[in-house]
Design a protein that fits this description.
The chain is built from 18 helices and 13 strands. The protein has one domain (about 5-480): Cytochrome P450 (Cytochrome p450, Orthogonal Bundle). It is globular and about 70 Å long. The chain has a five-stranded mixed beta sheet with strand order 2-3-9-6-4. Strands 1-11-12 form a three-stranded antiparallel beta sheet, with no helix packed on it. A three-stranded antiparallel beta sheet has the order 5-13-10. The chain is of the alpha+beta class and about 475 residues long. The chain is about 55% helix and about 10% strand. Keywords: Heme, Iron, Lipid biosynthesis, Lipid metabolism, Membrane, Metal-binding, Monooxygenase, Oxidoreductase, Steroid biosynthesis, Transmembrane, Transmembrane helix. Its cofactor is heme. It is found in: Membrane. Belongs to the cytochrome P450 family.
Length: about 475
Amino acid sequence: MTFPSPSTVLVIIFTIIVSPTIAIVVAQSLKSYRKKRNPMFPPGPMGWPLVGSFFSFYKPRPLSSLGGFMEQNLSRYGKVFSMNLFGEMMVVSADVELNRYVMQNEMRLFRNNLPAHIHRLIGDFALVMLIGDVYRHKKAIIVPFINMFRQQADFVRYIEHLAKGLMASSNKGGIIYVREFATKFSFYVVAKKAMGLTPEDPEAEQLLRDYVTFYKGLYAAPINFPGSMYRKALKARPNIIKAIKKKLDQRKAKESVDEEDDDLLGSLMKESTYTWENICDTILGFIFGGVATTSTAICLVFYLLENYPKALEEMRKEHLECMRSKKENGEEKLTWDDYKNMRFTQNVISETLRIGNVAPNLWKKATKDVEFKGYFIPEGTTVVAHLAAVHLNPSVFENPGQFNPWRWDTKDVKKANNLLPFGGGVRHCVGSELARVEISILLHYLILNYDWESVVPDHPVSAALVTFPKDLPIRVRAVDYSL
């Protein structure tokens, strides 16, 4: 048997892999060049050959900083500029009016534009991937279901019970790794609402591991090579779908519906037009959406409260007063009304989301030619609505790098309208209040029962998402503040 020479192999590889890649990038570059010829198209840097500004845009930076790339281009070009990513010229907006315009015109002038590798992992039927009437129809099912938890006192108690159990099981000689704890907590809260899954279920631990792998792969470089995080995530996806499908089949085999079946899975099963693939993708996306941002926000709350003890003290007073009032009325368990009365706690969460920017930008694609504030955005152009750039803008928020929950005490409508951690318009995150509820109840339990301090210095780093290089290890000490 004759084997081709090394030079022949290189020619074959170039022909099959490299040439098409170059052709695609060149085609994108020609399109981008035509865009830049329009004098109203925002100016911006071309960056490096092939990759453009990819590495500059995603370069890790401190929590309260936009990083050198954004700061330099905002200074040079203003609040709206363009950048080149892999041959495509995209518009980057740090302008709050343009960002709001993009979000308010979702499905009319713009649509979601998530990268292809994320689409492949999340699936065709997840809510975040849908557009038009299909999106509206599924959202009309999910939103009423989520709003049900306002009347479900048992769910509030479940969150508190879960926090207590996980604090005990995560405690390793007085040390807790907050990243691991927060991921478990947010996973089990949303998995309970999605498909009735609790930590006691036999498949729970493996499904959690698969979700962690899946989550890491979504934010990794989309390189499908053996050993890469993206490849591992691709392998984790069918395991997750299989676990959801098993729950679905078990429900279908039952002769009656239990109260425990009053979850998203049960709501979706009532929709006769949905296939099992549709239902499984929806559940997968729902759980991912609940874990990705909420777990990061929880880590940031731990970090910020330790570094700002005055805010922790103020919040502890609020929760102690809550418990005193309940005891005077002969009550013990937390309710929805208790959550709504945690005003300073909501200030802390809002400020954490503002300074932390767990979802720093939104990616949209123009479906028509758009002119706004003197800028021209051609049809097919990706617009990066940079929410973090607004949240950290000193002309919008005074001393934006300072953690200051008291800034939300005033009824400043303009300030509130500029806080958009959950997006806006028809695409406003359907689980935003669920996230606030679970963080509030978790904090209620923690600050009344524990003190904590860092074991080693570990500071948040922002890039595609917020990470803690050492997973934020803390030393916890049980203290009953309610006595």
